[in-house]
Fold:
Amino acid sequence: MAPKAVAPAIVDGDPQTYENENVHAIYDKIASHFSSTRYKPWPIISVFMSSIPTGWIGLDAGTGNGKYLPLPLDRPSDILTIGLDRSINLLRLARHAGESRATREVVWGDVLGHCWRPGVFDYAISIATIHHLATHERRIEAVKRLLESVDPQHGRILIYVWAIEQDELSKRQIPTGDDDSDRRGKDVVVPWVLSQPAEPARRGGSEAPTEQRVFNRYYHMFAKGELSGLVHGAAADLGMHVGEPSALASKQLHPIRGVEIVQDGWERSNYYVELRCWQTSE
Amino acid sequence: MVRLITHNLLACHVKGCTSNNFPLQFRDVQIELREAEFNPDFLRGFMPKLEWKALVDASRQLGDTSLPPEVPEMLDDDFLKNLHHVLLEIHVEEGVMTCPNCRHEYPILNGIPNMLLAEHEIG
Structure:
């Protein structure tokens, strides 16, 4: 397959409207085809899910077709992950994600919403989602929602986003520019080519029974360090420290909330961070 | 999908609606029962997260009266099996969840609750 061209994008107007048109509406149209290409969990995410203790409940913010909801495969009923997504057509697939076809818990909502009791989840994952938010501020808000959704004392979080730095196996060709995208990331649109049966009226004879439509999805490609920068920004807004709990004196008049960045890495064209929340006792 | 385990986590998030916004009240529900794997260790681990009264009230709204009004001291198998059924085997397929505070209505269609808000309702 020829490399797919990735074109620069300019986000203008209201970011919510922009996302509605350039992200949400597209996923609803390509849901079924998209889902058929997204079935294999990435290894670091599987390892994270396998490390979750029995009895914990979690949020998958931007669950897509729900491919992480059945994890861990060797003890699936030990934990429960609830999937949240903006695309109703992806959720309909997520509802029956996994080989067992068991019914999954899914909720139609926005990752910037907060439709949960605060801190009620033990863990949260957000995989390939935050890069669809169209401004830096909205991406910080999304990380804040994750920090607010998990238990202040032990909540664990894993976030994956698309990186400017692509691996050599990637099909993408990324436009290069002389701007400061190395530091601030890059706004692009990525084409999704959807083959579908042509409408009968338009079929001319026996050939070309399918027609192709191209949908350009908006992405913010992250620069190195940008994802952990969002964590710092979100933590600052919430009055949380970033770092290890031991770095602070334990004798505090008021409990202090913090978040430790346990992992900050790059894997196969994506940046990821793993976070662990902590709180000192009074 | 709205099982009672999810219902016990959901709260209204309309702008300014920050107190008495839990639990959402069921109305006009259609339910289906589906067996799920019984895992007592999961239930024991999850119990500290539960808002017990909200769960008991919601289960009664759905016609199940197997749970006691207070959490029992002994978490024996009979109790855990009832809890398992209430949390994980009753599926609300259709209906409405209403906020007890601002009366906002969250519809459930084909088993999926719609927690999206209109732009002017977002806090």
In short: The longest strand of chain A covers residues 186-197. The radius of gyration of chain A is 20 Å.
